[in-house]
Fold:
Amino acid sequence: MAYIDKHGVEFSDDRKTLIKCPKDFHGEYVIPNGVTRIGKNAFRNCKGLNSITIPNSVTSIGDEAFSSCRGLTSVHISDIAAWCAIFFRGYKANPFYYSHNIYLNETLITDLVIPNSVKKIVGGAFCFCSCLTSVTIPNSVTSIGGSAFYECSGLTSVTIPDSVTSIEDDAFSGCRGLTSITIPNSVISIGDHAFFCCSGLTSLTIPNSVKCIGWNAFSCCSGLTSVEISNSVTSIGSGAFSGCSGLTSVTIPNNVTSIGDRAFYSCSGLTSVTIPNSVTSIGDGAFYGCRGLTTVTIPDSVTNIGDAAFYNCSSLTSVTIGNRVTSIEEFTFCHCSALHKILIHKGQKERFAQMKGIKRYAHLIVEKEDFLNEHAVISQILHKHRITCFYHFTSRKNLESIRKHGGLYSWQYLKKNEIAIPVQGGGELSQGLDLYNGVADYVHLSFCESHPMAYHHKQDGEDIVVLKISTEVALLDDTKFSDMNAVDSKCRCEQGLKGLKLVNFAATKEKFLTNDNPLFKYKQAEILVKTHVPLEYILNIDEF
Structure:
């Protein structure tokens, strides 16, 4: 026979299972000691329930046990270790789904310290517990269960010890307040959705112990700007970093063999990616919507490039494809509107031109050896004319910003991304001319250290510094050369070797020229670097 207490709550005859609470119950309820199981739907639709006390004896809570308990505001327990061992059959088995608050011996917990006796934090243990701001996990814990801290939106810090070997599915999913996380060198696997939508995370280091990154593990971490992935990782799961719109660059380690479907989907801020020779397959939509990506090199190890892998990479200008690729699907490079060069190995042009995803771009195919020869000729010309570096002048006040943002950017990029610099180069007229001549998204460099425009700025009292830029930028895919100032109406401007041959090197070496000298304009020949000159190319940045 079932037992019914004075509140009308039904129990099993041995009083170890709480079966059902009446829907019309109102107020606080204290579950008696000795109860080990709260049954399926036990408190379902108890909308008047506002507080529940759960004893240490409870070991499992059934599916939907607290479903629709919208009035529940507090959960009271007396032992964290016992709570960490409860088996929850789904999200709505946990009363935190509605209460969001946990009280330990009548005190609201915000800084959770897991006791040393706990070996595993079970799945869903603290899900939806938004009152938590910090969690300290002891060295006794080896596993953080699935959804253990799911949607703990108030959580800002977590200490994970080096005893933990696995972070299971959804463990910290939806912890939007989490700004940093240190994954210890003991963790072998990071589960699916483990840090999904942790939008406050800004940087991430994945240690050498990790072998695999699960599906959507860091998806929608929109605040993430940098990721260090260790060489131990062999696979990057589907959607692993999808929607990480703040991510600007990523280096895939040498042991990764596959990049999963949608792995970097819609990483719109991504400007560079390094794919190693270990990778054999790039999944469907792997880099779909990476609108900041300008160049991609697909190594010889890759045999398969998935459909829509680079779909809508609208800034992608050149792709280098290895010789082992056997198929490129129809939509692989669809809507790559800026694409103007596909580099392949010599003798492969006819084969690639027949692939579904390349047919429409057959006219853009360049055999790689020819391209490399062009690079060699560019280097030879610069060496012949003793060009050891290029020059860019700027205000000393801009140096801190240049360091902070990782190099020089075109004024158009700075404006688009709302990056303010102390002293903007050129006024509205200058920017208007750049737009008219199609060079607004280029960083302008000079062949001569004593540029006439720098002289005028110094005369106006500005504290001008001259940055020395590596000649390596001349070999970047989109670099152009102009025979005079790129906005001059008589300027000739071309890309690569064709452009470099326009430059009058004798004029660039003249030290003093008046503006009526026929060589005056040619002294102002420019090197135009698309969008960004990375900090590592600024040779003398540490001298200021």
